[in-house]
Amino acid sequence: MSQYLPNRRNLIGAAASGLLLVPGARPATPTRKVGVVGPGWYGKIDLFRLIQVEPVDVVGMCDVDSRSLQAAAELTATRQKSGKTPRMHSDYREMLKQEELDLVLVATPDHWHALPMIAACQAGADVYCQKPIGVDIRECQAMLAAARKHERVVQIGLQRRSTPHLIDAKKRVVEDGLLGEIGHVEVCCYYHMRARGNPPDAEPPPHLDYDFWTGPAPMRPYNELCHPRRWRAFMEYSNGIMGDMCVHMLDAVRWMLGLNWPKRVSSTGGILVEKDSKANTADSQVATFEYEDFPVVWTHRSWGTPPDPDYPWAFFIYGSKGTLKGSVHRWDFVPVDKQTASLQGRNKLEVDQYPEDKTEADLELHSAHAVRYHMKDWLRAVDQRSRPVADIEEGHMSTTACLLANISMQLGRPLEWDPERGEVRNDAAANDLLARPYRKPWKHPDPAAV
């Protein structure tokens, strides 16, 4: 349906206000109605930060795990102002059909980002979608096309752009020119985060609709490593550590330095050390993203020790006048000239202002305030019908760069990206990998028909 066709709520709002609606905008309502697709671990982190910054009405939730869904709905009732329990759905399509939603949060496993996000845009909702935006590049292109066609405000969960101490570093170091001429950037992750062990395959638990959970991905035998939370053990559902951790730090560097598309991407790696796990994601990977003036080089190892123990997941921006180190916890500016003062900043938690953060199960406390500021930025953009700081196009660029690194590692050669054509230059085999085959009956989204 075209976004210009009036729906019931638009007609009521226009009649009540006597004003013409801005294209893409919904009429003002006292409380925004929210739906959540995937209220698991990070789905609740995102949702409860949204509730902290605005008294929204969470009216619907969807999950294929009935036990997780029930627990999330009951907990949401204790957190939202109305005290109401959201209606529970097992199919996101039914939720979008039955609920009139202003905002939709998508926090599913990565292989389930594209279809609900596109459907939410088509239903007229603004969307907050977790990163990476898709598991293949054609998905990313379709998601961007859907947001633009239906004039939706889409924020991606790349909250380093809303992290207060990193905003401070950007202003005080990068924008004030303390780095001098930048010649090299490194991004890295040395967390021991890759799934270990080799548990046997088994029957899925009765509370999980495993066929729906698998969705468009290839069908694997159920294994406890895939649900809940550890699905990044498998490339069938994710982009590995590259798509989980590199996308954050690469995006942070792109934001700090004003970078868009890399000209060329190359990557090597694989399972080099942790060979006894059922996981099929790389335990070691190096990728080089070549920009006009300097490269950005990513390294991850899920084994061994980090070169800088204070910065195990971080970025390092090297300039002629100094180096900026940044992470989710801190930043340090180390000048070349010893006569120049070093600078630093530290993450400041907001537990006094939001004491419920202290007792929230599984909350990433270091990121709670960043997600709150990210939600505020999204809501401001929704009100103004403008682009949020981590707009879908920014998410597309950061995600696609990481996907190109994985394709480069798979093919064993560098890839030159053509952003105008949305494909790899002179490499038919690489372009064949821009879209993953979807398992029937699910249909891969087409950027031209969303």
The CATH superfamily of the domain at 8-160 is identified as NAD(P)-binding Rossmann-like Domain
* Annotation field: number of helices: 12
Molecular shape: globular
- SSE succession: HEHEHEHEHEHEHEHHEEEEEEEHHEEH
CATH class division of the domain at 8-160: Alpha Beta
Major sheet: size, sense and barrel closure?
A: 10 strands, mixed
As a percent range, the share of strand residues is 15-25%
The CATH topology of the domain at 8-160 is given as Rossmann fold
User: Ranges with pLDDT <50 over ≥5 residues?
Assistant: 1-26
Keywords:
globular; alpha/beta; 450 residues; Rossmann fold; ten-stranded mixed β-sheet
Q: How would you describe the overall organization of this protein?
A:
- The chain is an alpha/beta fold and 450 residues long.
- The chain has a domain at 8-160: NAD(P)-binding Rossmann-like Domain (Rossmann fold).
- It has helices spanning 8-17, 41-53, 66-79, 92-98, 114-122, 137-149, 164-174, 210-214, 240-257, 365-384, 392-411, 428-432; strands spanning 33-37, 57-62, 87-89, 103-106, 126-129, 154-156, 182-189, 264-270, 284-290, 295-301, 313-319, 322-327, 330-335, 343-346, 415-418, 423-424.
- A hairpin with a 7-residue loop joins strand 13 and strand 14.
- The longest helix is centred in the last third of the chain and has 20 residues, at 365-384.
- It is globular.
- It starts with 7 loop residues before the first helix and ends in an 18-residue tail after the last helix.
